[in-house]
Amino acid sequence: IAKGPVNSKSAKSTAVPPGPPVYLDLVYIPNHSNSKNVDVEFFKRVRSSYYVVSGNDSAAEEPSRAVLDFLLEGKAQWESNMQVTLIPTHDSEVMKEWYQETHEKQQELNIMVLASSSTVVMQDESFPACKIEL
C-alpha cells in the first residue's frame, strides 16, 4: 500500500456524509438549491415532509435541475413512501421544466409541488407566501 499525501482535488467529498437518515418536518435546501453543496446523499439522509427550494438565478444555476433530480433519486431509496411537499420560493423556468418532465415520477414517489398562488400584504409591501401546518 502506497503512503503519501492524498490529492484532495481527486478525492470526492459529499455534502452529507453517509449514515442513518435524519427525519425533519421542514428543510431549506442549502445554498439556493445549488448542486455544489447538495447531492443525492443529502436526500437519502435528510428526510423531510417539506423542502423549501430557493433560487431564481438561471446564470448561477439556482435552483439546480441536478438538485431536483437528486431529490427524486434519494426519495426513491426511502423505505416508506411518505408524502413530500416542495415549496419553491420563485416561479423559475428550471422548476417549471422539471415539474412537467418528471410529473409521473413525482406522483409515483408521493411528491407534491406547491404553487405559490397566495399573497400576503403587510403595511406597504406584499409577497408570495404559503401556510404550512405541522
Describe this structure in words.
The structure is a single chain. The chain is an alpha/beta fold. 27% of the residues lie in helices and 25% in strands. The chain has 5 helices and 6 strands; from the N terminus they run βααβαβααβββ. The longest helix is centred in the middle third of the chain and has 11 residues, at 65-75. It is globular, with a radius of gyration of 17 Å. The protein starts with 21 loop residues before the first strand and ends in a 5-residue tail after the last strand. Residues 6-14 have low confidence and may be disordered.
Topology pattern, helix = H, strand = E = EHHEHEHHEEE
* Number of distinct beta strands: 6
Strand order of the largest sheet: 1-2-3-4
Rg calc: 17 Å
**Quaternary organization:** single chain
Poorly predicted residue ranges: 6-14
Number of helices: 5
Query: What percentage of amino acids are in beta strands?
Result: 15-25%
The SS-based structural class is alpha/beta
Helix content: 25-40%
Number of domains: 1
Approximate shape = globular
The main pleated sheet reads as:
4 strands, parallel
Q: What is the mean predicted local confidence, pLDDT?
A: 82
- N- to C-terminal separation? 53 Å
GO biological process, one term: microtubule cytoskeleton organization
GO molecular function: actin binding; microtubule binding
Protein name: MAP1B protein
